[in-house]
Amino acid sequence: MTTIGDAANRAWVTRSRRAVWHPCTQMKAHETLPIVPIARGAGAWLFDFEGRRYLDAVSSWWVNLFGHANPRINAALVNQLATLEHAMLAGFTHRPVVELSERLAALAPAGLGHAFYGSDGASATEIALKMAFHYWHNRGRPSKRQFVSLEGSYHGETLGALAVTDVAIFRDTYAPLLHRNALVPNPDLRQARPGESARDVAERAAARLEAHLAAHHATTAALIVEPLVQGASGMVMHDPHYLALARALCTRYEVLLIADEIMTGFGRTGTFFAWEQAAAPAPDFLCLSKGITGGYLPLSAVLCTDAVYDAFYDDDPGRGFLHSHSYTGNALACRAALAVLDIFRDDDVVAANRATAERWRALAAPLARHPRVRHFRQRGMILAFDVETARPDFARWFFAEALARELLLRPIGRTVYLMPPYIVTDAEFELLATRVAGILDAA
To answer: What is the pLDDT of residue 32?
Structure first.
């Protein structure tokens, strides 16, 4: 491997500090915490300009499914570049967006046959919220304009998405700007009382949802939920039974249901979409992003039912859904997404992931038994645990310790999670688990 030298690393870090305002970051922290300059990626690894490598154990914020510089996705994009990079989707269409819409509808829970495109996860949330509000307006019930979400929910950081997010560090500063939103308890498995099963926790949380909807359904437009795993609040996992109960309650009280699968979609939880494990009718909206392009290009989609689509279909332009993004349905991004779906189909990825998840569980068993670990949990390709520590700077300290051991990991508070690309080998995962245990030993 050619080594460029540490001077190149330092030069890019200096330029980045001066010119780039990094996301979810207190920039002053980078006076002591290193910014890591990345020169290239290959498989599950990222490499800096000196040739040091880092196992991407969080899939670069949960987006990279099949490894960096994946040759099949690369080839699809090169092919698409030769024909069409982008065309506006207002009044026009193109082959990649049509094919992607059709294939997503075929894979999604039955009835979700219309795709509206955005650029990222927060955009998908905004689209679904606006559609839900506008649906009731078009139906002659404008009083149904409130939303309800779960405690600890995260749905994005734009103002509409932030209004249904319950993570204080993102929300509290901007609270005066936000639309009021109701919160109901989440069915966090860690909240099980003595003798309670996961199903019992789900039923207890659903009872609180029912009480809220019974009192407020006349003014509630939609419930939004992250199926099976609430990511940004610490990989909070719940039983699929909660989703079935929530679907039944929303139907009974005439409240729309938005399933935010921005993180859980595309094979992360053991099924292609997490909602499949609910054994319940489809949600009214399905929000998708992150893994949709395999980590290559920004893209999001909202799938909706015929009933929602039909409420906007009219001669009156004002009854249409007047929302747009300049790069809506970008041809290159859609082609990357189609390549991702090809890999799922050709390699039977969902079945392979189930087998891989079992091997990961076995390889991570020493972590689950570590004396500092609490509430070790797994849902498909997502593993997480809480750490007993008195360090107030635990997340930052752990991140730096992981980098020193060739790992990219970003704890959420005192919760450590492992969510590497699907193509990680057993040997690479064993290395990951062993080195994480070493960090815990040093905590």
So the answer is: 84
SS (H, E, C) the chain: CCCCCHHHHHHHHHHHHHHCCCCCCCHHHHHCCCCCCCCEEEECEEECCCCCEEEECCHHHHCCCCCECCHHHHHHHHHHHCCCCCCCCCCCCCHHHHHHHHHHHHHCCCCEEEEEEECCHHHHHHHHHHHHHHHHHHCCCCCCCEEEEECCCCCCCCHHHHHCCCCHHHHHHHHHHCCCCEEECCCCHHHCCCCCCHHHHHHHHHHHHHHHHHHHHHHEEEEEECCCEECCCCCEECCCHHHHHHHHHHHHCCCEEEEECCCCCCCCCCCCCHHHHHCCCCCCEEEECHHHHCCCCCCEEEEEEHHHHHCCCCCCHHHCCCCCCCCCCCHHHHHHHHHHHHHHHHCCHHHHHHHHHHHHHHHCHHHHCCCCEEEEEEECCEEEEEECCCCCCHHHHHHHHHHHCCEECCCECCEEEECCCCCCCHHHHHHHHHHHHHHHHHC
* Domains of the chain from N-terminus onward: 74-346 (3.40.640.10), 350-422+432-443 (3.90.1150.10)
pLDDT at 34: 79
Taking only the tens place, the pLDDT of each residue in 88-147 is 999 999 999 999 999 999 999 999 999 999 999 999 999 999 999 999 999 999 999 999
Q: What is the pLDDT of residue 101?
A: 98
